[in-house]
Design a protein that fits this description.
The protein has helices at 50-57, 188-200, 202-222, 237-248, 256-263, 267-280; strands at residues 28-32, 35-39, 61-69, 74-79, 86-90, 96-106, 110-113, 127-129, 134-145, 160-164, 174-176, 182-186. The chain is an alpha+beta fold. The strands form four sheets. It has a four-stranded antiparallel beta sheet. A hairpin with a 2-residue loop joins strand 1 (28-32) and strand 2 (35-39). Helix 2 packs across helix 3 (202-222), helix 3 crosses helix 5 and helix 3 (202-222) packs antiparallel against helix 6 (267-280).
Length: 282
């Protein structure tokens, strides 16, 4: 969500200015031929508040998307056509962590503005809205843009690297999620076997190591603070890549284990099938 701010009128999505749940439309983004496309489904681009949506339909207000990329110093607001809400940008403008903020702005003066579902503290007050005032701060989307990264073709190496931790002799492997990729650390005996089986039976490594590690990574995403300034977590490459893969494969909202298995294309079945073939050949 977008952080609480002080406005001269009740603003949808800001603190408890309004009662009820906020409608958050999905933001889709794709990269192709040097163009990054941001788009919303026009059927879903509504605030869930009748009065505000009426203002938009009467052209008294309009949806806007602010796009900010700290790495390239790009920051700009774009009006959205409610019938065809999409934005096309040159891929040179964005690289790495990108924050997109969706909001609604009054495009003309609105007299006696009194939207439905406002907090009871406002009573029967009606407001005179000036052009340019904010009517709704809907959502802050945190995404990661890599023009040369194809989320539909991502493999385990897009997110993970393996490493021996020479400081421990025994124990279980553990994850370090602080870098651009997730480091899977093994103690000595594990490391020897990982190197042997990773070349001979890589599907087995997917089910034994990558699958549980990916589940933990997805849980890490879900546990992130949505009010995080400038998408600090998105500065880690694996975070942005994983979000892109989940969005591209339309896996949002699913169980972490189900997401991981779909990304890895059922690694358990593949590894068992491989072992079955190996045993049949003995």
């Amino acid at each position: 969500m977008i952080k609480i701010k002080s406005f001269p009128i009740p603003v949808l999505g800001n603190s408890d200015d309004f009662n009820g749940n906020l409608t958050i439309p999905a933001l889709l983004h794709t990269s192709s031929a040097g163009i990054i496309l941001f788009e919303f489904d026009p059927r879903l681009l509504n605030s869930g508040n009748t009065a505000i949506d009426n203002c938009v339909s009467k052209k008294e207000a309009q949806w806007f998307l602010r796009i900010h990329c700290a790495r390239t110093f790009f920051r700009k607001e774009y009006p959205l056509d409610d019938q065809d809400p999409k934005i096309e940008l040159n891929s040179d403008l964005l690289d790495g962590a990108v924050v997109c903020e969706l909001f609604i702005i009054a495009t003309s003066k609105i007299n006696n503005y009194k939207p439905d579902k406002i907090n009871e503290d406002y009573g029967a007050t009606a407001f005179n809205v000036e052009k340019g005032m904010v009517l709704g701060v809907i959502y802050r989307y945190k995404i990661y843009i890599e023009p040369r990264f194809d989320p539909m073709k991502a493999d385990a190496e897009s997110f993970f690297i393996f490493k021996e931790d020479k400081t421990i002799k025994t124990g279980s492997f553990y994850l370090d999620m602080t870098g651009d990729k997730i480091t899977v650390n093994f103690y000595r005996d594990e490391w020897i076997l990982i190197n042997e089986f990773n070349s001979r039976v890589p599907d087995l490594i997917h089910s034994c190591v990558i699958l549980p590690s990916l589940v933990e990574a997805i849980q890490e995403l879900e546990g992130e603070d949505e009010d995080e300034d400038e998408a600090e977590g998105e500065s880690r490459m694996w975070v942005g890549r994983l979000r892109s893969v989940i969005a591209a494969k339309k896996l949002d909202g699913k169980d972490c284990l189900e997401i991981a298995q779909k990304i890895l294309e059922n690694p358990t079945l593949r590894s068992l099938s491989k072992v079955q073939n190996e045993l049949a050949g003995e």
